[in-house]
Amino acid sequence: MNTLQDMEQLLLDGDLNALNDGIEKLQATTEYDLLYDVANLLIEYGFIGQADGIFSHLLLVFPDEAQLKIDRAAALLELGEEDEALLLLTEIGPDEEEYVQALLAQADYYQMVGLAETALAKVREASELAPHEPVIQLAQAELLLDSGRYSEAVRLYKKLLETAEELAGVKLTSRLAEAYSAGAAYEEAIPYYEELLNQETNPEELFGLGLAYYQTERYADAISRLKRLIEMDPDYFSAYMLAGQSHAQLNEDDKALEFYKMGIERDTFDKELQLAAGKSALKLQLPEEAERYLKEALVLDPEYIDALVTLASLYNQREEDELLIELLTYSEADQLEIPLLHAFLAYAYERTEVYKEAYEMYRKAYDGMNEDAGFLDSYAKFLLEEGKHAEAQRVIRQLVKIAPDAEEWTAYLEAQSEEEV
Q1: 83 Cβ contact list (under 8 Å, min separation 6)
Q2: For 84-131, how does the pLDDT look when each residue is reduced to its tens digit (9 = 90+)?
Q3: N-terminal to C-terminal alpha carbon distance within the chain
Q4: Which end of the chain is more exposed for a tag (fewer CB within 10 A), N or C?
Q5: Exposure string (b/e) for 145-158, b if CB count within 10 Å is 16 or more?
């Protein structure tokens, strides 16, 4: 066995024992060029550990070879051995031909460990040494995009697009669409998405275009692209939500609910789809159906506050007090300090004549609900019924402050003032 083709055939056959034997035999020879090619072939097929072993062996033979240090560092980064990779890269000095390449590899390291500014500094240093090298400009643009500096990334991608449509496997039009969208410049992103989709239909880019249309209030266009996406990939779950939201923006709640249901059929564990379906069912005056979806959302996440508040609101509106009390006192909600839920409990306890608990819940809700005229009105009436006139006056004064047109309560305060005089 002495050719690269032989080694590739072993990879294709999955004969790992023979492959490892072949590598050992090669390492016992002086066929270093072939051994280097085998290492790169192994990387291509995902055998990073074996490739790293070869690079390590070659470095014993050629300890000063900078390219080998870079290649091994790249393999080590893939294997999660970041510190060892950095040590190899920092051994390559500015006087060596591969220094720029080493800087880019160091940028990969710093990006991987979350030091975006340090990564950018390394790329900028490389750019100063090779200012007209497109690959370096691309690396800088990629880092800027990844670190949220979208306008700077756009500028570089546009510059690169002047001379090439694709670079190092990266479609520049795709990156421009992504960068504009990520920076909420959806109008500017649309032409790039459309250009991409005229060349080749891609699910990610279809969704990106649908989202851009949605964000620019072109809901019908969004729906048409999302329908196409769902036909192409029925398991692209985000498309169901966005299509439903687009129909909801057009006040087509029945069609929105259809998309949410379709999404739930594909993924019953999506709590956000369950919630959206519940809210749409409420708008369509289908309370039983809404209750089912909302309860399912809470089964998936007992602390899903949006679903909890929506279901509690439904029970409160329908005065289903036993269900409301059960929901908010025998679940995760009991641990949640949410004023609106305390208010719902206060109403339920009051309606069921459990006045001590009602009073406690009104008091808990007050600080967070003292700008809600409806709550203050109910609280004031409750306090008066309970004979707590001093507390009632405090609540009523707050109510009149935020709702000066509350004539009944204004008159009440005036009457109380006259009595005191």
Answers
A1: none
A2: 999 999 999 998 889 998 999 899 888 888 888 999 999 999 988 988
A3: 111
A4: C
A5: beeebbebbbebbe
